[in-house]
Specification:
The protein is mostly helical. The protein is built from 13 helices and 5 strands. Helix 7 packs across helix 8 and helix 10 crosses helix 12. Bound molecules: adenosine-5'-diphosphate and tryptophan. Adenosine-5'-diphosphate (ADP) binds next to helix 1. Tryptophan (TRP) binds next to strand 1, helix 7 and strand 4.
Length: 321
Amino acid sequence: MRILSGIQPSGRLHIGNFFGAMHQHLRFQADHDCFYFIADYHALTGNPSPADVARYTLDVATDYIALGLNTEKTVFWRQSDVPEVTELTWLLSCITPMGLLQRCTSYKDKVAQGMSPNHGLFAYPVLQAADILIYNSELVPVGADQKQHIEVTRDIAIRFNNAYGKILTVPTEHIIESVAVVPGVDGRKMSKSYGNTIEMFEPEKSIRKRIMRIVTDSTPVEEPKDPDKCNVFALLKLVTSPEELAEWENRYRSGGMGYSDAKKRLAELMIDYFKPFRQKRTELENNIDYVKKVLADGASRAKAVATKTLAKVREAMGLGA
Ligand code: ADP
Ligand code: TRP
C-alpha cells in the first residue's frame, strides 16, 4: 500500500512528534511503500526567516534518518524539490469550493494564535490535497488535528474524478489514534508553538533539566497519587517496560513516593531510549552532504510519480493539447 505523510520544518522535532507521528511512520516502512516528505512550502505560510526554513529542513531530515528512515526503500524528499505539486494545487483550486476551505478550523485556529491571515494559510489544505493526490497515496497517517484536511482531500478527489474521469486515487483516512497526546512540561499538549517541548536530541543535561521541571500537583510525598492525572507518568508510559510501569503505578497509588523520584527515572529512560539514535545523528551532522544526497535522490524518485499524475490531470482538464 502507498503510504504518504508530511511534516513541517517549523522547528526542532520533539518527543511529541516522535511518539505521535514519526514512530508510526517508521514502523510502516517494513510492510508498505512509504513516501515521506518535509513540507517546506507549507511552513512558508508562517513567514519564517529563510535561514530557519533551511536549517529546520535539514534538521528534520537528519532526525528522520537518524531515527531509522530506510533510505533505500522509503522515498524521502523536500516538498519544494518537486514543484509540480504547486501546479496541481492550482488545478485543484479551480474545482475547490470556497465553502470547503472556509469550514476548515485550522486556518481560524492559526490566525487566532497570531499567524498572519495570508492566502497561503487559507489555501493550505489544497496544497496538502495536491501532496496526497499527486503521489497516488492510499493511506495518510496523521494526527487527529489533520483529520479535516484528509476529508477535504477526499472531497476534492471525488469532485475531480466526477468531473474529469477517474484519475485520482481517493485516499482512505488514517488517523494515528492509538497514541495519546504527549503532554509538554507545562501539562499542555507538547508543541513547538508553546515552548514546552523536550527535544529528542538536545543535550542530555538539558533533557534532565526539562524533565525535572515538569509541572506536577502539590500532593505531599506520603500521600497516594493518581498516575492518570500526572504528566510525568504519561511520559513514563512511552519509554518504560510494562513491568516497570506497573511498579510505578503501584508506587503512585501507595503513597510515600515523591514526584522527583519518578522524574529522575524518566530522565534516565528517555535519554537511554534515544541514545543509539543520538550517535547516528552526530555522524549525520558531520556528513550533511549525505543527508542532502538522500533528499535529492528522494526528490528524483518522487518527481517521477508526480509528473505522471500531473500529465494526466492536465490532459483531462484540456491543457497542452
Ligand atoms: P507542533 O505542535 O510541535 O508544531 P506539528 O503540528 O508540526 O507539531 O506536528 C507534527 C506531527 O506530530 C503531527 O502529525 C502531530 O499530530 C504530531 N504531534 C505533534 N505534537 C504532538 C503531541 N504533543 N502528541 C502527539 N502527537 C503530536
Ligand atoms: N499539514 C501537516 C501538518 O501540519 C503536514 C502536511 C503537509 C501533510 N502535507 C501533508 C501531512 C500531506 C500529510 C499529508 O502536520
